[in-house]
Write a structure and sequence with these properties.
single chain; about 500 residues; Aldehyde Dehydrogenase, Chain A, domain 1; six-stranded mixed β-sheet; 15 helices; about 20% strand; globular
């Protein structure tokens, strides 16, 4: 956790120069919560307070929704030519790139992500704005085949006012997965960031305004989920909610929609993703490297984390030994050191939750073979070592419940069929992987596993052109790719009678 290396000191000085504004961004400008209430933003690096956040509630939501509706009905954005929205979003992508280091340092300070990963996240956000900017004027409407006396047009229209409720683990990345397609399609969007990591999005709001997104078309409301988030979910003038977060809260948004105006809801929720390694996987050192990456990247705070390593018995001992060795590459370091791969967990509550699960695993009889302890407590920050359990039964809590931390459970399987059974024995279905050199087995297993993404002989690979989302209680609807536009548009049929 040393801060003596000059480049680390440079990043820390950069962070000290940041202007952190935790106010809401409503109708084109920054504003305090109407109640005047605030929340403390504390850095997970040391536990120290770094800013105050506007504690928005139902009153602020009413103001923001009214502004969003006015902007949508005015049509300066919603009825603008796709090429015009494209021009603004391309300008926004460049502004994000221009402010890369500022935004990345804010993510590291506020969310605990290592600075190299945070810079990559900002790059991804810029790429996402660019992707949807370049796509939107190439999405074509349809002419349906009908009888010669009619002309049936099928057109996509923006859905209206969208509430994007986003998590803290990728604070700008997950937000832009929703913001970019929703804005490109012509909607007004209100972002409710997680109260644990809001600051990068309150800064992004000003950049969106600078890029030319009209007042009211994009707004950011910090605040507690039970206040601002619930109010958005229950609001009768919000047309759609796009949510990423826990399955428990995702279910609440379904209830809110039913209790209000039956708004559209899309959910990307929890995961307990199986990483299946069969006996013919081949290079076990490569498998172990990806298994460690899948479990420990972003401190394990990732819904698609490969937290269940399901391994055929014949190779389990060797693979576990190699995974433990590769976990050393994910040991905790100073998040402002560009060489660091594992940073801080988001807050003390999450750190305690992870350590509680470690205790639960040990009590249940799983064998702890790496990690399991808090690291660098003298810093005041929230760091946990990469943790590996062997001899895990899939019925154990550590194998069934989403820990959202750097904890990997190794589960033995008799053969491929048993591995598929174990993989599917969960309420989640977000992601999975299978390692095999047999192409027939790869196809058979990937088809049998119930998950929105199945990687073969790799883990956690992604591209904006492919959709991301889950099966079962991991949610429904897709982020990324052109399919994401389906969440933010609705189809209209216009039937013209040509008989005269």
């Amino acid at each position: 956790m040393s801060t003596t290396t000059p480049i680390i000191g440079d990043w820390r000085r950069h962070a000290e120069r940041l202007t952190l504004d935790g106010r809401a961004f409503i109708d084109g400008g920054y504003a305090d919560a109407l109640s005047g209430a605030t929340l403390e933003a504390r850095t997970p690096l040391t536990g120290e307070r770094i800013a105050d956040l506007a504690a928005c509630d139902e009153a602020d939501v009413d103001v923001a929704v009214a502004a969003a509706r006015r902007a949508f009905e005015h049509g300066a954005w919603s009825r603008a030519a796709p090429a015009e929205r494209k021009r603004v979003l391309l300008r926004l992508a460049e502004l994000v790139r221009d402010h890369r280091d500022e935004l990345a340092a804010t993510i590291t300070l506020d969310a605990g992500r290592p600075i190299t990963a945070a810079r990559g996240e900002v790059d991804g956000a810029a790429d996402t704005f660019q992707f949807y900017a370049e796509a939107i004027d190439k999405v074509l409407d349809e002419v349906a085949p009908t009888q010669p006396t009619a002309l049936a047009l099928v057109t996509r229209e923006p859905i209206g006012v969208v509430a994007a409720v986003v998590p803290w683990n990728f604070p700008i990345g997950m937000a832009t997965w929703k913001l970019a397609p929703a804005l490109a399609a012509g909607n007004s969007v209100i972002v409710k960031p997680a109260e644990q990591a809001s600051l990068v999005l309150t800064r992004l709001a000003a950049l969106m305004h600078e890029a030319g997104v009209p007042a009211g078309v994009q707004q950011v409301l910090p605040g507690r989920g039970e206040d601002a988030g619930q109010a958005l979910g229950r609001h009768h003038d919000v047309d759609a909610v796009a949510f990423t977060g826990s399955t428990e809260v995702g279910k609440l948004f379904l209830i809110y929609a039913g209790q209000s105006n039956m708004k559209s809801v899309s959910l990307e929720c929890g995961g307990k993703s199986p990483n299946i390694v069969l006996a013919d996987a081949g290079d076990l050192d490569r498998v172990a490297r990806f298994a460690a990456l899948g479990a420990f990247v972003n401190q394990g705070e990732m819904c698609s984390s490969g937290s269940r390593l399901v391994v055929e018995e014949a190779i389990r001992d060797e693979l576990v030994e190699r995974v433990v060795a590769h976990s050393a590459a994910w040991q905790v370091g100073d998040p402002f050191d560009p060489a660091t791969t594992s940073g801080a967990l988001i807050d003390e509550t999450q750190m305690d939750r992870v350590l509680d699960y470690v205790a639960v695993g040990r009590t249940a009889g799983a064998r702890l073979v790496a990690g399991g302890e808090r690291v660098a407590p003298e810093s005041g920050g929230y760091y946990v070592a990469p943790t590996v359990f062997d001899d895990v039964d899939n019925g154990m809590r550590i194998a069934q419940e989403e820990i959202f931390g750097p904890v990997l459970s190794v589960i033995p399987a008799r053969d491929a069929d048993d591995a598929v059974r174990i993989a599917n024995d969960t309420m989640y279905g977000l992601a999975a992987a299978v390692w095999t050199r047999d192409v027939t087995t790869a196809h058979r297993v990937s088809r049998a596993v119930r998950a929105g993404t199945v990687w073969v002989n790799t883990y956690n690979q992604a591209n904006l052109a492919v959709p991301f989302g889950g099966y079962k209680q991991s949610g429904f609807g897709r982020d990324k790719s052109l399919h994401a536009l389906e969440k933010y548009t609705q189809l209209k049929t216009t039937w013209l009678n040509l008989e005269v």
